[in-house]
Amino acid sequence: MRSTLQKLALAIAAITLSISIVFSGVLPIMAATSNSITISQAEFGDSWPFTVSNGELYCIGEGNGQQVGAVVFATEDESYAVNGTAKALGYKAIEEIWRSNPAIPGTKINIGPIIQRGLEICK
């Protein structure tokens, strides 16, 4: 039977490993992925859902042991989770740059086309 100290040491080691995996950086995961495209407001017109004018849309996970289908939008300064799979990987919430819909107060511009486009590059 394991002593309490041994159990505590194993628990601490497991927590430390989990934290180091989470905080080892999401950008290296993104860098290892070649599935990306540049998208911009010019391309989407009034249906552009972001407050920034352009960025890189990534599909994270294909072939590197991560969850497949994580769609990430990267600006010069930050990488944002476009879908729930990317949010689960720890990417920043897209709400910070998600544009309000001027036609329907209290709502946001439809982000579905961006998610769809990101999932297409996952293939």
TrEMBL record:
Pfam families: DUF2511. This is YebY family protein. The lineage of its organism: Bacteria, Bacillati, Cyanobacteriota, Cyanophyceae, Leptolyngbyales.
